[in-house]
Each structure stands twice: as C-alpha cells, then as structure tokens.
C-alpha cells in the first residue's frame, strides 16, 4: 500500500458482497493537501450535557467531563440552566450526541422537543425518564423484564376505584387490597421524587418505624415511635 500504509484495514462491501479497502473508496488522497487532511482527521464529536445546574455542575459530573475532555475528538458542551429553562429549544446549543437526565424542575418535555428538532444521538432514553418518576411504572417494567422484585401491593388513593385503595391496619400487619404484609414491611410513596420511605417494625422488635429521607448532612434516616401507616397519599407496600 506504500503511502497508505498508515490507514487501517477497513473494507466496504458492495451489493454483490465484494470487498474493497475503504481507503480506495476515498479517491486519490494525493490530491488532498495537508489542511484538508487535518480538517477531516480533526473533526470532533460534540457531546451536549443537558441537565439542571445542580447535576451538571456537581463534583462527580465535573470529574466525568474532565476525563471525557482528555479525548482529542470529543468536545463537551454543558447547556446553561437559564438557557434550558428560559430559551426555546431552537436556541439551545447544537450537539452531535446528547446526555440529558431529569431532576426536580427539569423541563423533560423540552429536552424531548430538542431531540426531535436536532436529532442528536441520545445516550439515555428521554421518554423513559417519565416512567422512572413513578415507582409503579418502574415495578411494572421490572416485572415485564423478568427482574426479581419484592412482593408488593399498591395503595392508590387517587384511583376512583375503591378496590385500589382498601387498607386494613392491625398492630403487626396491614392488608392492602387483600394482600397481607406482616411487619417489618416497607412503605414507599408512588412518586420516585419523594424519598420519604418508612420501615415499620413489629412489636416484638419494639415497634415504631425508621423514616428514610434524602440525606441531610451525615443523616439519611431517623427512628420514630409512630407505628401507624400514613393515611394520606398513595404508596407501595412491600416485604422488607
């Protein structure tokens, strides 16, 4: 191959399955000057990060971006939060590849509109991010995919069907829509944005409940002597 010895052995196949080295399909490379070759070889893939500032400017994300920027052919662009919230998607930065994830206050529908408008390569499914905001949908997806999950029942107080919010509470168990859960059991809000998850203990273990919440300082839970389940809101009950 002589002057083309530096080009990788990549082949292109035609309709008759005949292979031809990719470098031959590029024409006469000798006709290209150094500037042309540099432009082609120096083309960067622009990766856009579209998320709220609390996420995109976090220490872990900055570490990831720093490492990605070490690659010569990757250029990172972080969408400013004010642009995401206030500007139409037509004015958002252009990118070849999009990394976008939902958090509180993030306009997920706008991100989907942007993906339709610009058609970048999507790293993480945007539409599915609506599903992961609802624990009921998450559990349904896990079941569909054959992934093992704890035995559970949904108490849906928003449902007009009374069969979906039947609750009978006893000292050491609850019955949710006919399904019995003996203590200890877990009570989770159906909204995945709500991190107030309670674990109820049996009287033999002293009763009460452990209340989990989004970490504050060095704490992410606190014990409460309250043994009764919550009477407002919709929840998933499952075996501990």
Automatic annotation (TrEMBL):
A GO BP annotation: inositol phosphate biosynthetic process
Chain ranges of the VIP1 N-terminal domain: 45-134
Cross-referenced InterPro entries: His_Pase_VIP1 (IPR037446), VIP1_N (IPR040557)
Keyword entries, A-Z: ATP-binding, Cytoplasm, Kinase, Nucleotide-binding, Transferase
Molecular-function GO term, any one: 5-diphosphoinositol pentakisphosphate 1-kinase activity
Known EC number: 2.7.4.24
Gene3D superfamilies: ATP-grasp fold, B domain
Catalytic activity: 5-diphospho-1D-myo-inositol 1,2,3,4,6-pentakisphosphate + ATP + H(+) = 1,5-bis(diphospho)-1D-myo-inositol 2,3,4,6-tetrakisphosphate + ADP; 1D-myo-inositol hexakisphosphate + ATP = 1-diphospho-1D-myo-inositol 2,3,4,5,6-pentakisphosphate + ADP
Subcellular location: Cytoplasm
Entry GO terms, CC: cytosol
TM regions (residue ranges): none
Similarity comment: Belongs to the histidine acid phosphatase family. VIP1 subfamily.
Protein name per the record: diphosphoinositol-pentakisphosphate 1-kinase
